[in-house]
From TrEMBL:
Species, as recorded: Eutreptiella gymnastica
Taxonomic superkingdom: Eukaryota
Region (Disordered) location: 1-20
Name of the protein described by the UniProt record: Uncharacterized protein
């Protein structure tokens, strides 16, 4: 018998996910492996996302900060004075402690 043994088919390194949760969140350890391949850490990713969110909220990017402040009660927003920096419900407050006036 001169026939060579048949070689096994190569295994798929990325088999199809077995559940919808595995499709969305990945397999255990897969995220850590991907971060290692990228040469980064979960801490660096978290800091980047946090800094981006802080810049976006601080800069009122696309009006997100104003929209979030509009969901709060008016007395809370007016009492904090944050409405002097960001428009809330379309209005921005102007205050002068020196001259004793306040405009909405």
């Amino acid at each position: 018998d001169n026939s060579a043994p048949e070689a096994e088919a190569p295994r798929d390194p990325y088999p199809a996910p077995s559940s919808p949760a595995e499709y969305v969140f990945g397999r255990p350890g897969e995220f850590a492996r991907d971060l290692e391949l990228l040469g980064t850490s979960p801490r660096r990713v978290l800091l980047s996302v946090g800094a981006s969110a802080a810049l976006g909220l601080g800069g009122n990017f696309l009006g997100v900060t104003s929209s979030l402040l509009s969901t709060l009660p008016q007395d809370v927003v007016a009492g904090s004075g944050i409405d002097a920096y960001y428009p809330v419900r379309g209005f921005k407050r102007y205050r002068s402690d020196e001259l004793g006036y306040e405009f909405v």
